[in-house]
Structures are given as C-alpha cells and as structure tokens.
C-alpha cells in the first residue's frame, strides 16, 4: 500500500491494483503547484465532506478518469446530477470494494457544497485489506467516537489526522486522538495551507515525540509505503 501526499488533505492511495484519491484540492493550492491535475487517473475519489478545500478538483478528475466517487449519500447524489457515478455511504456502514473494505466513520465538523447545497454529515474513512489498515479522519474535532475505531475495525497501520487547529483539532488534540484510535504512526494534514492553520511544525513533532508517537509531515508528492 503506497500513500502519496498531494497537499492540504489530499492523498493518493495505491492498493490492490487500484488508485484512490482523497479530498482533491490541488489546482487552487499554491503549495501543490507542481502537481498536474490533468495527469491524475484514479479509479475512485473518496470525499470526506463538501467543503471546497476538499472537493475542488473532484469533478474535473472524475470526468477525465471515469473515477467513481465514494462519499456520504448527499454528496454522491450531488455529483450524480453532474453525470458522475458514485457509491453513497453513511456513518457506521462499511462496504467491500475491489480495493478492500471501507467504513464511513464519524467526524465532528460541518459540510456544505460549493454552491450552497447541503453536504450531509461530514465523516472519515477506515480502509483495510491484506496490505494494511488506514484511518482517514477528514476534518474533525477530537471526539470520543474515535475510541470505537479499534473496537470495530482492524488494528491500524497508519492514521491521517488534521493538526492545523482553528477549523479542526490541533496537534495537541491529535495526540489524544492517536491514543483513542490506538495508532502510533500518524501522518499530519490540513495545516499551513492558509494563514489560520499555519503551525509550528517543530513543536508539533516534539509534542508527538514526547507522547511516544511517530508524526510524519510529508513533503508534497512524498510517498509512504506500508
């Protein structure tokens, strides 16, 4: 399983012969200017919620690649009206796809699509297959619901958590989240893209290290192999 960072909260996951793209916000992110959106050909696009900084390039990429969108029912319905195929889910539900099992889990945030349409309830995903298990938290506050993940899902090999504060939990709460989900291998996201979420990355690394948890802050286009 190969996980590549595309900036902000966007990741590409290559597993079981399939390519998944998470929350594509690339073309308007100056930090990700080296990425050619037209070159992306995922099989699936996973969307955690409807905010523009998570869906901006989803329509373009889905139409050029034929990718299926996986998200909550409301977001999938919105894209279906644009002629894009999708698979709708809701909290607590899981489905066996050709790339593995995907479970849609709680996130504490808000969700509205770029045109003002209700984006349904925000969420996160837990993905597992024979290659590993990953939690993609999406935009969320710290919540005790995270304690259900190690009870209802396989042991996590990696978790992608927001650490930028202001709109989501900050790195101090993300350390607690890592404890709730029972994962000591964390990748940070949703930080430094905009002024309100700029952080002291050295301090964040120190806080995680003190807790005995590995925090990785990958460079854009850097990959992690499980």
What would you say this structure looks like, in words?
The chain has helices spanning 52-55, 58-65, 73-80, 149-152, 171-181, 201-210; strands at residues 2-5, 11-15, 18-22, 44-46, 68-72, 86-89, 94-97, 100-106, 123-129, 132-136, 158-162, 185-189, 214-216, 223-225. It has 226 residues and is an alpha/beta fold. It has one domain (2-217): Metallo-beta-lactamase, Chain A (4-Layer Sandwich), CATH 3.60.15.10. β10 (132-136), α4 and β11 (158-162) form a beta-alpha-beta unit. It is globular, with a radius of gyration of 16 Å. The mean pLDDT is 98. Keywords: Hydrolase. It comes from Jiulongibacter sediminis.
Number of strands: 14
- From the alpha-carbon coordinates, what is the Rg to the nearest angstrom? 16 Å
Fraction of residues in β-strands: 25-35%
Instruction: Assign the CATH architecture.
Output: 4-Layer Sandwich
DSSP helix count? 6
Overall CATH class: Alpha Beta
CATH topology: Metallo-beta-lactamase, Chain A
Which homologous superfamily in CATH is the superfamily? Ribonuclease Z/Hydroxyacylglutathione hydrolase-like
| Overall spatial form | globular
- The low-confidence runs, each spanning 5 or more residues with pLDDT under 50, are none
Residue share in helices?
10-25%
* Sheet having the most strands: 7 strands, mixed
Q: Give the N-to-C terminal Cα separation.
A: 5 Å
- In terms of structural class, how would the helical and strand content be classed? alpha/beta
Mean pLDDT: 98
- The tally of domains stands at 1
Helices and strands, in N-to-C order? EEEEHHEHEEEEEHEHEHEE
């Amino acid at each position: 399983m190969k996980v590549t960072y595309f900036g902000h909260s966007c990741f590409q996951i290559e597993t079981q012969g399939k390519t998944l793209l998470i929350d594509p916000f690339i073309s308007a992110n100056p930090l990700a200017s080296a990425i050619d959106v037209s070159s992306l050909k995922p099989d699936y696009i996973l969307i955690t919620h409807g905010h523009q900084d998570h869906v901006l390039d989803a329509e373009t990429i889905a139409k050029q690649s034929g990718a299926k969108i996986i998200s909550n029912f409301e977001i999938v319905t919105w894209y279906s009206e644009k002629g894009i195929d999708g698979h709708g889910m809701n909290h607590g539900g899981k489905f066996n796809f050709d790339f593995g099992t995907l479970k849609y889990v709680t996130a504490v945030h808000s969700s509205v699509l770029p045109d003002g349409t209700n984006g349904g309830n925000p969420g996160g995903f837990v993905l597992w297959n024979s290659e590993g298990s990953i939690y993609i938290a999406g935009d969320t506050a710290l919540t005790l619901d995270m304690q259900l993940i190690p009870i209802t899902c396989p042991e996590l090999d990696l978790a992608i958590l927001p650490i930028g504060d202001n709109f989501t939990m900050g790195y101090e709460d993300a350390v607690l989240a890592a404890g709730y989900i029972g994962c000591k291998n964390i990748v940070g996201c949703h930080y430094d893209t905009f002024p309100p979420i700029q952080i002291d990355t050295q301090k964040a690394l120190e806080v995680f290290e003190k807790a005995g948890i590995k925090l990785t802050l990958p460079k854009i286009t850097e990959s992690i192999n499980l």
